[in-house]
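User: Fold this; tokens only.

Assistant: Input:
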Amino acid sequence: MQADYVIVGAGSAGCVLANRLTEDPAVRVILIEAGGRDWNPLIHIPAGYLKLLQHKRLTWGYTAETGAALAGRRIPYPRGKVLGGSSAINGLIYIRSQPEDYDHWAQLGNRGWSSEEVQPLFRKAERWEGPADAVHATDGPLQTGPTRDQPELCQAAIEAGAQRGWEYRTDLNDLPHGLGDHIGWVQQTRGGRFRASAARAYLRPAMRRPNLTVVTDAMVERVLLDGRRAIGVAYSRGGVRQEARASGEVILAAGAIGSPHLLQLSGIGEPEHLQGLGLEVRHALPGVGRGFQDHFIVRVQAEVGGIATLNERSRGLRFLGEVGKYVLRGRGILTYAASLVAASVKALPESASPDVQALFASASYAPGPGRKLDTKPGMTAGVWQMRPESRGHVLARSPDPRVQPEIDPNYLAEDRDRRTVIAGLRLVRAWFAAPALARYLVAETLPGPALQRDDELLDYARRAGTTVFHASCSCRMGRDAMAVVDDQLRVRGLSGLRVIDASVMPAVTSTNTNAPTIMIAEKGALLLQAARHAQA
């Protein structure tokens, strides 16, 4: 097959790119996805994510190494393997992050990535449920909207935050520079009763265009190089090896795990690592797979009384009533995001701005990413450090593309990260103790009132903490020797090859990463279009 562009990965970024590039009928695009079509109905029911995070067919089934930092645990590391990628299995939270994040990217030498410059890209992507304004647009592909159902316990959590001195924000995507502690209702990637995955929002309309070819159930094995130029990819489908050639550019949008892994399998990376696997070094680029970051979430959980929670509403006759609400009105618990309330608060005194994010749910869960609801009424706040300093890696283990790479987020390697986790747990405890929530509090169940000292809380975090699914930075953008792409998202030292996904973040954004990833792809499409016009 031959096209102008070959895109690897139909996740959040790949779907955006396929749509934007094929808006020009003269441009031919091939989009290759390892997973299948997004036909599973649980994908499209918002609360269905609870059943998808470890789905054997719709995820890659990855696990992450944690070593001594997390008591030697191997933790599940869900990434979507289906049209829409992780946007098809995530918790639907739409938060763009703090403006300082993007200003930091620009300060690192990445031209065009400041908060002022990326803000129009967020608006370009968005089809906001409410009226258009300076923050939200209504004519983009991605359906977003506010939290409509606002449970009483979540309202109490916001009131408790105000009692702690946190500013209530009516729009968590309208954040001025220098904002201090704040709390509000999350926004969702949802259109009506259905999830607005990147596949539903961007790819489905584009698949009607004759200039887009979508290949599913195809494992890309390597990038094809002609000297220093990428000319296509080799992939296998149904046991048959095939090639897709690009007359223009090859674009890796396989995510923070898949993109560095594929570069390494193609002989692009740290020479010593590649040679140790018996791979020919085609281009030395030591930063590939390095600098990997993720947010590390630890939960505080409590039993509550005298108020309804999600736990009871998800069982028996009450659940049948919720199904009826969903079918008849598109409302109720089946439309909920992973959390409905988010707070950004400063936990360490030396931090200049909020340094932890806490997501609140009127529910309680068993430990780990499986998100199994408890039987007793409960509430949970998951807290993570917004700007971790620890960095890990994603490294191929074998020349075989079907062998999972080594994924090591290297959580809690830095002292500041450990201190922030401890302070974050104490902050959530104080939130739960504020009068608005304390009147419902029966008992803390995790980490439990017996754990009070710093070392005890840190040990709890090591035993119970896990990923919050924000993999990033493994092909980071920059100008230093360890950068993988430049600020045009071109792989350094090669032509015809770009990486456009969350892996290019120079540092992980402070909050959820799906909205920023879609923004990155919107900008990447503009960069590709500009380069094409410059060559014309």
